[in-house]
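Query structure, 97 tokens:
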């Protein structure tokens, strides 16, 4: 998928241009939260499995670590949907966090 796009902090980046800062806390200390979400190909088009439940769990996990997610649940849900559409994905596994 090296020709696709990734959503980072409110913007889309080309897959091969996406970067994280060398001092990112999760890189050094392993403190991170994420959700693995499946998108299935259906006769009606791509369907993201239990999106709202996954996003709620992501926010609950962040809360346990006292992490502040700078986007609303709705913005995260929209970003997941938009990323799926922008990459023209019919079926996939994605990690969100």
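Result returned for the query:
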């Amino acid at each position: 998928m090296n020709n696709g796009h990734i959503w980072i902090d409110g913007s889309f980046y080309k897959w091969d241009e996406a970067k994280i800062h060398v001092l990112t806390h999760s890189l050094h200390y392993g403190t991170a939260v994420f959700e693995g979400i499946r998108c299935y190909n259906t006769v009606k088009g791509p369907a993201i499995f239990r999106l709202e439940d996954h996003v709620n769990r992501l926010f609950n996990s962040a809360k346990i670590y006292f992490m502040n997610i700078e986007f609303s649940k709705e913005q995260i849900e929209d970003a997941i949907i938009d990323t799926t559409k922008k990459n023209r994905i019919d079926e996939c596994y994605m990690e969100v966090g």
